[in-house]
Amino acid sequence: MGLYELIGDMPMFKFFSEQEKRDFAAMEHSLLGFNKDDIIIREGDSFTSLYLLIKGTIIITKTAYNTVISKLTPGAVFGEMSFLTKKPRYTNVIANEKVLVMKMDDEFFRMVKPEIKDRIKDYLIELLINRLDAMNESLSKIAKYARSYSLK
Known about the structure:
The protein is an alpha+beta fold. Helices cover 41% and strands 24% of the residues. It contains five helices and eight strands. The longest helix has 37 residues.
């Protein structure tokens, strides 16, 4: 199965035209493969690439907690915080099995068509808004629990 077919139903591509999906899939030089337990991103790294998980699963860990924070599946975007803020990486990203990722770095964005850049930017905005909404909901639940606990 080719890259075009693999990305077809991923959330990031829901507003891409078929031609934009083909153009994105043509950027195969940016594909990277990793084997199980390979470290894709190490906490504290200063490089700021953005990634799209194409095949396989990855786990997100935080060194201080020595535990899995999250498990991501194909279609997930990761590395966006350092990509946008240019700050060091907050977590480790480790291949949970054999994986294929699209690395989107400065070189990638210099080579990609402007309309694809815009689609990716729009998706990142949507993704971050959704994450912020989820975080606000979680904080609201924590605050409600803390208030009810302190009244006892």
